[in-house]
Amino acid sequence: MTTRIDLWWLPRAVLLGLLAFIIFGPLTNLLLWTVAEKWYFPHMLPLDYGFGFWQRVFSPRGNAMVSLGSSIVIASLTVVVSLALAIPAGYALSRLRLPFRGLFLLAFLIPQAFPNLPVYVNIARFFYQIGLNGTIAGVVLVHVTHGLVYAVWIATAAFSAVDVDLEEAARSIGAGPFRAFRDITLPLAAPGLLASAIFVFLESLDEFTGTYFVGAPDVTTLPLLLYTASSGGNYQIASITALLLLIPSIGFMLVVERFLRADVLSKVGH
Amino acid sequence: MKQRLLAVLLVLPALAMIIVFFIVPLLASIIGAFEVEGAFGLGNFSKSFELYSSDMIFTALIVSASTLLIGVFSIAIGGYLTLGENPLAVAVLRWLYRWPMFIPFIVVGQILRTFLAKNGLMNNILVSAGLLTPLQTVGFLDWRGIVIAFVWKQTPFVTLLVSGAMASLDRGTIEAARNLGASRLRILVEIIVPQVAPTILVGLILSFVTMMSVLSVPLMINAQSPTMLTADIAFRINAHGDYGVANALGLISLVMTAGVAFLYLRQTVKERS
Amino acid sequence: MKTFINTGILLGLAMSPAAAADLTVLTAGDQNMVDYVNDYLGPLFEKENPDVKVRAVGTGPGDAGSQKIVERFDAQAKANVENWDADVAVVHEKFAGPMVKAGYLEAYRSKIPSGEMVTSDKARMALGTNVDGYVMPMFSSQTAIAYNPALIPNPPKTYAELAEWARQNPKQFGYNGIKGGASGVSFVMGWIYAFGDGDANKLMNGPFEEAETRKWDKAFAQLKEFSTNATLTPGNAGTLDMLSRGEIAMGPVWVDMFYSWQADGKLPPEMKLFLPEPGMPGQPMHYVIPAKSPNQEIARKFVALATSPKVQAEGIVKRFNWYPGIDAKFVQPELDKASWDKLFVDISPDDLATKAKPFPIAPYNSAILEAYEKNVAN
Q1: Is C60's Cβ below 8 Å from some Cβ in A?
Q2: Is C62 left (phi over 0), alpha (psi -120 to 50) or beta?
């Protein structure tokens, strides 16, 4: 028995090693750039290491921490609003008889599918007219329109995957429709819904063009700073900023996972 | 009838959100696509096809190829997470695969550019490990770089969805098939994948759409022509201030994605009836 | 129900009025432009005007960055906003003309003391549009060819020699086409100035004649052949990036970007620049003030400070190695000789006088770009 396991470890180790290289190779690159003070050809690794660029990012006028804070607030609100809209919509799209269902689903796809650059001017103009420009609410709305496709499509898939019979069984023993939904369908669909929450959160943390048009100069987020740095080739500043952005992303995922494991997974399959 | 009304009411808030805050502003752009110097016409479209038809094909090919690879990898990883027998290997893989998801696209572009280049970190590591000689190194900063960047960033996204769906499958059938001596590969292909197919499709379509609209990756990785439509749109706007052709290209891109989404919708409608 | 509660929270958060004495500076360009305002100019201005707070917003490098500022103004103009949310903007030359034509800008140059110190033609005409009075140049930027003297001890001196060198050293010359930023565009414009059959001066100064646009066929055919022997790089930063990794030995770059890459340790310190004959285009970055900025007076004060000889010497030349925006003769007395000479290490003042060209006027500019797309990129 033991020898068999040992043999299997060979391909396993090779494959996992390869995967680790593919995933961590580029990430190592990111980490090296955060502390590289001097790095150019023909040197394989940085010539000088240091935290000089960290000082620039965290200089009192650099606004990094404030931007990080507003990024987290915006992303969290985007998740809450998106899920609040997507759960009823997803339920209706998967369970109820809805005319033009396909068209509804397509509509949610449009904000992602039409390259946004030419549209932002119109959105900004509209937001100026209704006074939403320069507000957190405005930025959240823009992010929600982009995040909804993940939330609604994944919610629809998640509700479709839940067995209708379970809900009907609950109804037949006297549970009201809302109770059957809350106690049976929602918990069973929760893994999918929470996965969609992660994507909406990350989508919001990845967005900068909309934030510029609708939020700046009053609302600045970390991705906005990241964009200027990265597209100009300021590798060090961009890498440090990206590293900062990892904190909320991974934190959010850990919270969601914890919630998933404790509350929901135990119910799945029962 | 009552049920239909309820359904519409449930969808309405989300739909209103999209319509008010995106589709209405979008309409002006769509109208703009048909406007040439104040008059309506198809001039912007003919110019788009004249200048950028190879870019359209390139975009479709790149995004389709990436989607295909993402599908294969996410099923493979998800399958191993579900069927893997060694808890340690499963745990390592589960810990490993997700990281790229958290890196914003623009940073993916940046780090892969300095990683995949001819004298980038990847080749430097391979050379110093003795796996390559300096003369054998190749850079990947062309269409391959875009595909690699897309697959690298999007595979975890689809895998997370797919492995979640796989985990909530009924273990009974899988165990039964296993007891009958079916290989794990066969169980994956014949039992698991068909059951989670809708989730795989949703994940892939969402990836497809996302990749169609990413600007930073083609801008930072691929310098060659042809390039992706998003880069052309940015170029029309920034260099020429030409919103007409930009909007026409946007509309073409929208039609391409809508086509893919439509295939999926037709399939689910069939399933439901 | 949940939705309503959320909306309530959102509306609560929406109440975040900006303080009255905020001076908002939108700046296109690289990170170093944002840093310049944040680390140097802002604190300096706040020291003189303690009740004002300067905030800088970067809109990204290259034309895309300036375009985003134009679009922001467009949106506010179309929405009939009374008080715009930007007080000062820094934009590329190319975008000054459209902004003046659209009536977005305030003519303020005559109202500030440094206005008289501007002598450059580029402050009067921006790619064929009269912008006289509306702009103050922040600094002049120039494109040049960067190279590694360790690999190329004797760099070519003219475009013709450069083309020959690239033929003999395939893939060692890199440029970023026309879609990845203006350093590549500038190289192409210089190519047309050098090899086009028309009159280069007419391209730079106008007037626009349709016939002129048909005189480039031969030049583009040569450029296509040249490009097959060259490496195409992803963007302005992409050229510097490949230079830094030794994948190309030579390529067109913005002088200011080149120096800031060197300062950030991303380029070998021994790398140098040269300007090939007959020259390559450069352009100034301009300070503009929107006509509907609510803080006109503070904005003018800010630009006056930014274009004063002292700041131009201390900030623009000494700190960033940029060529001053106002006439150099007002700046030179403010500087020690060493700092002044550092500006001209690679490119002499004579070179600048003869080989620093403007970009072609807007209609030729567009025509060349489109001809490139049809003839070279395909």
Answers
A1: yes
A2: left
Chains in contact with B, counting 3 or more C-beta pairs less than 8 Å apart as contact = A, C
**Cβ(A121)–Cβ(C75) below 8 Å:** yes
What percent of chain C clears pLDDT 90, i.e. is strictly above it? Answer: 68
CB contact under 8 A, A141 and B21: yes
Domain residue spans in chain B?
54-272
Cβ contact, residue pair C13, A237, below 8 Å: no
Q: Is B96 exposed, middle or buried (0-12, 13-18, 19+ CB in 10 A)?
A: middle
Nearest by CB: A121 against C9, C18, C74: C74
Considering the entire predicted model, what is its pTM? 0.90
The shortest C-alpha distance from C214 to chain A (Å) reads 31
- Which letter does DSSP use for residue C318 in this model? I
- Say how many domains are in chain A: 2
Are A12 and A101 found together in one domain? no
Report if residue A270 sits inside a domain: no
The answer to whether residue A223 is domain-embedded is yes
Q: Which CATH number does C141-282+355-375 carry?
A: 3.40.190.10
Domain that holds residue A170: 61-265
- Coil, strand or helix at C198: coil
CB contact under 8 A, C178 and B114: no
| Residue of B21, B35, B238 for testing the chain A interface, max A β-carbons within 10 Å | B21
Q: What is the pLDDT of residues B108-145, one digit of tens each?
A: 998 999 899 988 999 989 988 888 888 888 888 889 99
CATH assignment of the domain containing A157:
1.10.3720.10
Task: Give chains near C: 3+ CB pairs under 8 A.
Answer: A, B
Fold of B54-272: MetI-like fold (1.10.3720)
Residue A102 has a pLDDT of 84
Do A19 and A74 lie in one domain? The reply is: no
Asked whether the predicted pLDDT for residue C5 surpasses 80, the reply is no
* Residue numbers in A near B115 (CB within 8 A): 25-26, 29
Using H for helix, E for strand and C for coil, what is the string for chain B?
Answer: CHHHHHHHHHHHHHHHHHHHHHHHHHHHHHHHHCEECCEECCHHHHHHHHHHHHHHHHHHHHHHHHHHHHHHHHHHHHHHHHHCCCHHHHHHHHHHCCHHHHCCHHHHHHHHHHHHCCCCHHHHHHHHCCCCCHHHCCCCCCHHHHHHHHHHHHHHHHHHHHHHHHHCCCHHHHHHHHHCCCCHHHHHHHHHHHHHHHHHHHHHHHHHHHHHCCCHHHHHHCCCCCCCHHHHHHHHHHHHCCHHHHHHHHHHHHHHHHHHHHHHHHHHHHHHC
Helix orientation angle between A2-35 and B121-128, rounded to the nearest 10 degrees:
130
Same domain, A99 and A206: yes
Distance CA B73, CA B91 (A): 17
Q: Which one of C98, C234, C247 has the shortest CB-CB distance to B221? A: C234
Which subunits count as partners of chain A given 3+ CB pairs below 8 Å?
B, C
**Helix or strand run (H / E) with residue C287:** strand C280-288
Write the ipTM. Answer: 0.89
Residue of A nearest to C81 (CA): A128
What architecture is the C2-140+283-344 domain classified under in CATH?
3-Layer(aba) Sandwich (3.40)
A187 within a domain of the structure (yes/no): yes
User: Which residue in the set B23, B105, B249 is minimally distant from A110, CB to CB?
Assistant: B23
CB contact (8 A) between residue A112 and residue B209: yes
Same domain, A34 and A149: no
Domain for residue A160, yes or no?
Answer: yes
- Which amino acid is residue B16, in one-letter code? A
Omega before residue C207 within 30° of 0, cis: yes
Residues A43 and A74 in one domain: no
Mean pLDDT of B100-107: 90
Range list for CATH 3.40.190.10 in chain C: 2-140+283-344, 141-282+355-375
